[in-house]
């Protein structure tokens, strides 16, 4: 763990609409720190402006089908999860499937229990919404994220691409069934 913060020090909640710019700034920073080295700046900056500018992530907060959960420390957003209807090009998804579109935690707080808390929220909300399965996409070379998702029962179920400028990345679609409880066994009468 890179931070002296303990799990109880974090505040988890839905963001207020006024926090959209702070959430977007945190997401922009996290994406740039994690993936910025892969892209030319001429491609990266327009992507960041579009994805995290006023018409990007803050505007998504107005979508009633998209839910956000933020993690804060001392009033600053340090992580978030975003849950929405499925947008990834999954093969044969079940009706009502949802997608965990982002789960980001700033580097100093990775390993402090923030990501597991956000994942548990996403799984609980997906189940509460009646989703039979939850999907996500992950960059194929993001091995840390893939190990994390595997610990929660996600498994690779397909491929898709992520384009930024001229570069096309190989992403993987991962799926977790949420209704894996077997039906009750028929009662056997004597």
Task: Provide a descriptive summary of the structure in words.
- The protein has 190 residues and is of the alpha+beta class.
- The chain has one domain: Aminopeptidase (3-Layer(aba) Sandwich), CATH 3.40.630.
- The chain has five helices and seven strands.
- The protein has a seven-stranded mixed sheet, sandwiched between helices.
- Strand 2 (67-73) and strand 3 (76-85) form a beta hairpin.
- It is globular, with a radius of gyration of 18 Å.
- The relative contact order is 0.16.
- Mean pLDDT is 91; it is low at 182-186.
Q: Would you state the CATH class?
A: Alpha Beta
Reported for the largest beta sheet, the result is:
7 strands, mixed
Spatial separation of the terminal alpha carbons? 58 Å
Content of β-strand: 25-35%
- Structural category is alpha+beta
How much helicity do the residues have? 25-40%
Radius of gyration: 18 Å
User: Quick check: average pLDDT?
Assistant: 91
Q: What is the CATH superfamily label?
A: Gcn5-related N-acetyltransferase (GNAT)
Total strands: the figure is 7
Strand order of the largest sheet: 1-2-3-4-5-7-6
* Anisotropy-based shape: globular
Helical segment tally?
A: 5
- Point out poorly predicted stretches: 182-186
List SSEs in N-to-C order: EHHHEEEHEHEE
Q: Identify the CATH architecture.
A: 3-Layer(aba) Sandwich
């Amino acid at each position: 763990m890179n931070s002296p913060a303990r799990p109880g020090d974090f505040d988890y909640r839905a963001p207020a609409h006024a926090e959209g710019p702070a959430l977007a700034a945190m997401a922009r920073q996290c994406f740039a720190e994690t993936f910025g080295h892969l892209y030319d700046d001429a491609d990266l900056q327009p992507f960041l402006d579009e994805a995290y500018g006023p018409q990007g992530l803050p505007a998504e907060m107005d979508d009633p089908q998209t839910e956000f959960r933020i993690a804060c420390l001392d009033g600053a957003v340090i992580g978030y999860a975003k849950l929405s209807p499925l947008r990834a090009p999954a093969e044969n998804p079940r009706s009502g499937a949802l997608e965990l579109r982002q789960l980001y935690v700033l580097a100093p707080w990775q390993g402090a229990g923030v990501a597991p808390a956000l994942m548990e929220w996403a799984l609980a909300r997906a189940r509460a919404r009646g989703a039979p399965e939850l999907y996500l996409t992950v960059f194929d070379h993001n091995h840390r994220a893939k190990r994390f998702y595997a610990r929660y029962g996600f498994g690779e179920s397909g491929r898709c691409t992520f384009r930024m400028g001229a570069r096309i990345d190989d992403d993987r679609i991962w799926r977790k069934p949420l209704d894996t409880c077997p039906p009750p066994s028929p009662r056997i009468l004597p």
